[in-house]
Amino acid sequence: MGLRTAGIFIISAALAACSSDKSDSATAHSANVAATKKPSIAKDVGAPHLPAAQKKWVPKEFRAGMGRFKDPGIYVDGKPLGILKFGELPVPLPPSWRYENAAVQFTGGQAPKKKIVHQRRYSFVKYLEAMHVDVAKIKEVHLYGGAKKARAVVIEGSTLRKGGVFEFRFGSSTYGKAIPACGPHVGDTNCPDNIRAIAVYVHKRPPKRKGGYFYLNGKRLDGIPYFGTPLRGGIRIYKDGPLVAMIKRRKLPKVSMHMTKTPDGVEHWHFFGWLQSQGVNTDSIKEAWLIHHNRRVRRIPRDKLIKAMFTASAKKSGEILFGDEKIPTKAIALHSKPVKKEDLPVIEKNEQDGS
Questions:
Q1: Radius of gyration, CA atoms only, the chain
Q2: Are residues 112 and 142 in the same domain?
Q3: Nearest-CA neighbor of 236 among 319, 308, 299, 306?
Q4: Which of 86, 90, 110, 116 is most buried when burial is the number of CB atoms within 10 A of its CB?
Q5: What is residue 101's predicted lDDT score, i.e. its pLDDT?
Q6: Residue 98's pLDDT band (cuts 50, 70, 90)
Q7: Which of 220, 249, 265 delimits the end of a domain?
């Protein structure tokens, strides 16, 4: 997989000069020299070839390197397991609380630059167990991260199972980007400053890292091994932990027995019917939790789910409106057993909301 970031650099310069002759037969002559270079794709070893039509503007999902990684996805043998966001964590998944130094805004004088905060961390092993992954059989875990410069960390399964070796947290406690917390024997004590993707290998053969790239069967990889282009956007649907479906407005079929259209042209989709069309067994679903702004905002019991509809408006990118109340929703957690109140995450008073 190509891990060097391919970027779009726009360099423009404009120089204007004008002069005029004050004689009766004055002819204004000016010099406008504009040197403007068209946007171009920076060459990167391993960056996919782009057609000429895409060189002016490239959709993010087709960019090379880390530009395609918007959501920190977890993949097991190439199958998407979920996205690392606080509101989409499986329940129950208790945090490990730590007292850590955190930077504070410095206003001068003798004010401290750091303060002690009560920081929640999550064990990656416990996360995988809650998502029904057989941790005892994991061969390797590959952590992709970095911002300007991509980095990759390989964690052996035996190392992972030692406990306390690999944890993660979120930038602002209960929202923000996923940040790795690696033990002293992981990544040469130099983990990336964020998580772009994590690939877990249980049954399939892990690719080999060489010179900052990953190779499989002698071929360098340009995406998530055994999967392809990383997950991006959409309304994620989980069932008892793992991801089972995604709603993407552009991929909703225009003609379907599960869709009705009101006189104003708005398309409404029958939720259970759409799930069934995606191969999701709805017989065992007892309730659903609607997730928005990293919070479980509403519990929907089965009797209401059976009749529930949703809309996916172009004006509401990244979310759907669920049910008759049109509840904004960015993810949905389905459960075959009612979730106990004590299993839900407890948000402390000092932990802010975020999207």
A1: 25
A2: yes
A3: 319
A4: 86
A5: 66
A6: confident
A7: 220
Show the tokens assigned to 44.
């990167």
pLDDT digits (tens, 9 = 90+) for 266-294: 889 999 999 999 999 999 999 999 999 99
Residues 107 and 147 in one domain: yes
Spatial CB neighbours of 326, under 8 Å, sequence gap ≥ 6:
311
**Both 195 and 326 in a single domain?**
no
**pLDDT higher at 66 or 30:** 66
Copy the structure tokens of residue 37. Answer: 């270079």
10 Å Cβ neighbour count for 49? 7
Share of the chain above pLDDT 70, in %: 71
Q: For residue 32, give its domain range.
A: 8-65
Structure tokens at 179: 């940040």
179 and 311 within one domain:
no
Q: What would the two tokens of residue 222 be?
A: 């340009």
Q: Does residue 353 belong to any structural domain of this protein? A: no
The Cα–Cα gap between 152 and 188 comes to: 11
Instruction: Report yes or no on 225 lying in a domain.
Output: no
Handedness of CA 93, 99, 103, 105 (dihedral sign): positive
Same domain, 188 and 175: yes
Q: Pick the more confident residue, 295 or 34.
A: 295
Confidence of residue 227 (pLDDT cuts 50, 70, 90): very high
Q: Determine if the pTM surpasses 0.70.
A: yes
| 113 shares a domain with 253 | no
As a whole number, mean pLDDT of residues 48-71 equals 45
Q: Does the residue 226 lie in any domain?
A: no
Contacts 24+ apart (CB under 8 A), 246-254: 247/274, 247/310, 247/312, 247/320, 249/312, 249/313, 249/314, 249/317, 252/312
**59's torsion region: left (phi>0), alpha (psi -120 to 50) or beta?**
beta
- Are residues 1 and 36 in contact, defined by beta-carbon separation less than 8 angstroms? no
Task: Look at the block and give the residue holding tokens 């839900």.
Answer: 344
Looking at the fold, whether 89 and 196 belong to one and the same domain comes out as yes
